[in-house]
């Protein structure tokens, strides 16, 4: 039996906005296994980002339980076992492209020369080696997101959580970025969970989870 990377049992999440209670998730039960390709779809505010944050240990549930059978404890998930790709610009402005890509490796206590080698190899594999010494301000939006993908891949994580990674890109650039991501994961056991509004991207995944008002439904599997 394949061990799940993450398991959520009857997860609920409530936020407080002043005195107002806001329900983000309602009794979600799901699991992610090695090699999974999962799309989270649904309108803004439906709970997609909340679910990703809980999966990656960035937030704690109000009810229910989360475990990471194939990854270990919550404290040891990042930056190497679980990687994130965000919608908004997430590169650190003072660092060059290669420095941004190697940063999670350095934070994970990888020796500096090995971290630089892994970062350069990843950039080369993604055909980004020619911009390795550029600063984020010198990049186009598409280039910046490809570097964010490279940063997520460099540590060879077991789980990648992507929150609207193409949300700020035009359609052709978004499709190219997703091509690069899927090609980079081809043949690997790294699981990918992507929150997206792009139906074309969702349909390229093996499983679709529909989110609506904090309730999750498996549409395809």
Could you characterize what this model shows?
- The protein is α/β, with parallel strands linked by helices.
- It has a single domain (6-220), classed as P-loop containing nucleotide triphosphate hydrolases (Rossmann fold), CATH 3.40.50.
- 30% of the residues lie in helices and 28% in strands.
- The protein is built from 6 helices and 9 strands.
- The chain is globular and about 45 Å long.
- The protein starts with 5 loop residues before the first strand and ends with a strand.
- 42% of the residues are buried.
Quick structural gist:
With 221 residues, this protein is an alpha/beta fold. It has helices at 48-55, 97-107, 112-125, 141-154, 171-185, 199-202, and strands spanning 6-17, 20-32, 37-41, 63-67, 82-85, 159-163, 191-195, 207-212, 215-220.
